[in-house]
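Write out the 3D structure for:
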Amino acid sequence: MNNCYSIDLSKYNTVFCDSLEAIEWAYENGLSKSSIIKSGAPALLWSKGHNIHNIEKRWTNSEIGEFQTTIREFSENIFDKALSVNGIDRELALVVSQYASGNKFHKVLYKAACLEANDFHDHRLYIRINAKTGPTGSYYMNQPWKDLLSSNSLFSSFDYTIENDEWNATSTHRVPLLTRLRVAGYKAIIYRIMVKFMKKLPKWFFTKELILPNENELNIEIASSLAIHGVKIKKIQLDSSFDTKDEILDNSFFKLYEAILPIVRNRVEKWVDPLAIEGTIRLFNSGLRQELTQFKQFIKKCELYILKNDRVKRSVLVNAPGNAKGCALSYVCRRHNIPLISSQHGVTIELSKAHSSRHFRFDNSVSDVVFSFNSKLSDVEKSTYFNKSKFYTVGMPSRLMKMSYRKIINKFSYPIAYISTNLYHAGFSLSNNTDYINSIDEKNILLNVLSKLPHKVCYKVYPEDNRRYADLDPVFEYVAKFDNVKLFAKKIDMRYLISNHRIFITTQSTSTLGWPIMSGKPVIFINKKNNYPLTDDAYEKLSKGIFVFNDNDKDFYKNLRGFLSQSLEKIDELWKVKENDRKKMIKEYFSAYDDDGAGRRAAKIILSEYLV
């Protein structure tokens, strides 16, 4: 049940809120309908209320671009300064850089930059969202207004409990068993069986062990191959179930904080109103404390599993270690002289301009060894400031290499699939657009292209695990306006749906692109200027191998609509013309090998170099 306690809603003429449902409730309970509502939520901003103000309007594309690109140098300066403090190890300095330069703090900084001077001394109300949906509940659904405006004696806030509290995470439970087995392949089955079987065998039975804190497609195949060669596969769970209020920091934190504070303050002062500076710095301090506490507690957990053993040779194989957990693994592994190995999660870094500012989170900033799908990824990561890895190019895992399974074409009910990559962030992200602008872009694609095609189109929603906004995405409701477009909103990964469609349209240079590319079916890629754009070289190669359209070109919608309005057979013919160039593109930017032996190649390297 919702209530606003003793708050008199009628006295607030400015309210921060990201939920249409919550605002409608507030209107019914005393809030004036003429009150200004400051929000970044697409559902509210689409409502067209004259009193709904886009709080992120102060950010232009160029400003967000500058905000993004300057993170690279900032992260390096923070790392160097932290590492210069006596007694600070590389892993700890990297955690500090990751926190200072990453989304956690930069979302705070991004939002603080939206505040105006009068927000700190006039009546202000913030309606927070209370929800239990998703793995993180309402964590991503709320903004730092309460902490940033705590100095304002006329500021109040309260929690609104949303009525629609149903939310499903991405799962394979809705996928038929045969489809899951076909996509996973026999190597994944071997892996699952061997993990359970080996767990029951006595410790003295093995002289070599591979420890897996988490998984990805390539890691599973590597572990499967190693298991066949008698290496024990041991899964461990490094969860985050600890109380971060229980600080275990020592005096080194204060020396560290004092050293980096001038760099942080300089960045904060550049972007926020003077009245927001101290609140932003205060949130940086508390957030860094929490991050370093987690790092130290992760170290304790890692020590329980990863101990040096003169009789058993060990290596650790991890997925996406560019975080506090991965740095803790790196610290423990280094102390015990155990190789920390990672493998590429998906094609992204080698394709995207946007990711260059996130080099402090690349695998090679943490791991001793990186297995990549292609040499381009290795080249990109080798050139980064934080590189500490040795690279081996082994190709894509068999799950991706076998995406070319096809159904009979005349049975496709929706031959074209639009694979949406529109994931809202409720603030700062790698996009140079706000969530609202991204929602408008999706609307325009629907209105100007998909809805006008002579073919049926499946609009495949991005499977969002952590809920960002309380209200339904207004784009989903917009899809229902068109007879030829069907909304597919089930939380199912695209890899399980490739065989259901004949032609794919997608946007943004993310890992999603790998699945349709490797299907062998026609792919239309929309290169967005302000949203994960391709690098210049990737654009050149992909334009030859697949169909690429730039969203900032003159007559973009007309040209894309015209191309897709051709017969499906004609598009297939044009696709075949690109076959030779596509093979070259795939070899350079997707998989260096055209077989399914990536796991075997990586396992052979581990056996000969790191488990001897």
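The domain at 409-589 is CATH 3.40.50.2000 (Rossmann fold).
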